[in-house]
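Researcher: Next sequence.
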Amino acid sequence: MSEFTSLHLEQTAPGVTTLWLDREARHNAFDAQMIEELLSALAQLKNDPALRVLVLRGRGRHFCAGADLAWMQQGAALPYDANLRDAERLGQLMQALHGFPTPTLAVVQGAAFGGGLGLVACCDMAIGSTSAQFCLSEVRIGLVPAVISPYVAQAIGHRALRRYGLTAERFDGEQACALGLLAECFSNDELDAAVERWLANLLLNSPAAMVQTKALLLEVSTALLDEHLRARTAKCIAEVRVSAQAQEGLQAFLEKRSPGWI
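Model: Next structure:
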């Protein structure tokens, strides 16, 4: 795997890679270099045939404090075209994570502010600590949560996004669960064990079926409920039923044994 300065890739179990945000001294806040490294890491992992689940975590006390203030200060002195390029790269990162082919799980402790909250929203699933702190803090410093807003809206709904995007209120892990941003929250001491339970459950599933299900769900989430979508879903299940993993899964179920991918 490639070497990075602001990230660390770790194979934490067979079929599982953890992508660690690794700027602990800066609370894992991102800058242009981290954005480029994240794009590179996701492109690399996307082509790993052995990958079944990608976990996104932050080293140290915090998941991600959002954009690095020093980087933002430099950006304020740049012309519009340079700022547009930076924003487009951040948008490409959010889309690459949102559309990553295999399941993604964010694990949140400490702060997930601004773009850090965006990263959580782009993952398929997220769990975190009850004491985690979330905030769309942009308006407090005269900015807008622009690039991340479509993904946060999908994760927590437009009404909640308008509240937290306009008030810049902080909310904790329990409120993040109530909003749907986190699926579950735990004490800091319980979080690692919870990650293991989540991964063990995901690894029971057919790798191919999870990839196909994710692709289908991303498609139907924005599609019109019409004849084209009905035909598309019928075609999807017909193709999957005759696949090798579906045949193995059905046979294993009938024979009351574990399928070969476990």
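Model: The longest helix spans residues 80-98. The first strand starts at residue 7 and ends at 13.
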